[in-house]
Fold:
Amino acid sequence: MPAAPIKVLLVDDDEDDFIIARELFREIGGSRYKLNWCDRFEDALEIISKGEHDVYLVDYRLGAQSGLDLLLQVQTDGCSAPIILLTGQDESDVDLLAMRAGAEDFLVKGQITAKQLERSIRYAIERKRADLEIQKLAAFPKCNPNPVLEFSADGKMTYCNESALDLARTFGRATLESILPANIKAVVHDCLTRNENRTLQTTFEQRTFSWRLVPIPASRMIHCYATELTERLNLEAQLRHSVKMDAVGQLAAGVAHDFNNILTIIQGHANLLMMNQRLDPELERPLQQICAASDRASNLIRQLLMFSSKQVMQPRSLNLNESISNISRMLHRLLGEHIILDSLTSENLPAVYADAGMMEQALLNLVINARDAMPRGGKLTISTSTALLDARLVMHNPKARPGTFVCVTVGDTGKGIDPKIINRIFEPFFTTKEVGKGTGLGLATVYGIVKQHEGWINVESQLGGGTTFKVYLPTADKKGLDPTSLEKSSVNVPLGIGSETILVVEDEPALRELVADILKSFGYQVFAASCGPEALCVWEQHKGEIDLLLTDMVMPEGVSGRELAEKLQFGNPQLKVIYTSGYSPGMAGQDIALLEGFNFLAKPYPPLKLAQLVREILDRKDKTTA
Structure:
């Protein structure tokens, strides 16, 4: 495709000069140039203001006004195209005036050849283009939002833009000298010698910067572009921490699952021995110590799973006043002597349907957060109350809802929370503490626990005036449950001697054998299988005989406990099911322990608890849904 012609405007009040110019352009090559003519000063101003031409040829003599006047006027108006001034033979010193006024070249009429005209136009356009590029480059450091510096060959700073000065001021410095890399002079010399770019990284007052040095060999200078990396590095560190925490959580869950299987075996055999009426009295105390030690180990596993957010939910009717009382001694140790603890618990507080361990963990995290907000001491208040919320009170909180709730308030007299970040405090890994002094998971864990229990949290804070967290939880009767029956349902179930048939599915051989022995000791008929496919084979062999399925949730061979139960209940809708696992039920797809109609037995469990639950489920008249 041929190049577009160069558009030329001749400003000259003599038509003969236009004719001469037209002939010169024809000699050069008519298709390469498009010549227009204007003979009046005012018309020229209007045409040039439109910016439609690539170059302007302006005669010095334009009637009452001169070409210099036109040149100065259009440049003031922002003309960016090159201007070549045409002069007469007897007009001395016009060339100097023209160049000072901004003309790219000047030509003497009557002496202009086609070759000379073409060269002048070409050079004028190139010079103007180069000048514009130089202006852009010169303006770049000034308008660049990042610091830009310039160094001479000996490493001295010769220029810095306003952004660089602003950066220095944020550190209370007049210049950036103290913030620059210590070896800047050596690096500048090396850059120029090798003609290679270099990038340095420095940290000053907990802020990290990258310094990119670019050599300019022609001027023996170094341009340096600074970029702050602090936020990016923090995000990368949070990402690495998140990945690490997830990996540790997965590892913790796996270890806990295996350890829970082992604990179930230890506790089960120890309890069976203690239930033996012919037990040697000398063995009773050692067995009690074994059971106590395994209970402590079980609590450690619960904490490990809570850290990994895979704790098995074990909700029950719970009085939060008792939860506060249970951890009161620990709270005093956590707070120390410089913080006053004031507990204001409400009488006749309704029960909530919650996991006791998780509630205590949430309270501890809130207390630790309050303690850290009062490094010089203060007062921490924990209170409970019954909250009656109507539509008006909850309209400004999308998570809230009307009704009766138990409210736990944790307030401190600490430094308060900046309004700019208060909406982020429950984000995982968000923390205002120094590196290494906080994981950013404390309040995130509280948020997760409260949300899992169908509650919400309100936060009120004022800088310098302390912070108050209000946790709202639904009462137990909101679940349609009788709080008293919840507490007694598991302990009042008579054991009795059973005669039903139970299919036990467990991939751990020792645990499978133990569970079978326990159930047989209570009179049940037991079939055992190590995996889903084997259980299906047993089912086919004993159709109509099996009354209850006791299955681990996570098993090998590609068939989970949930899938196995669905297949068996398809053939026998009356089949009762109990799930068991050392994992959280949430890892199998949902929090089964919180869903009505699901029966979940968390490992480790004692023999009596297993027997009680089996008897309770078998005696139910309604079908248990898998």
In short: Confidence is low (pLDDT under 50) at residues 480-493, 587-596. Residues 140 and 265 are 73 Å apart (CA to CA).
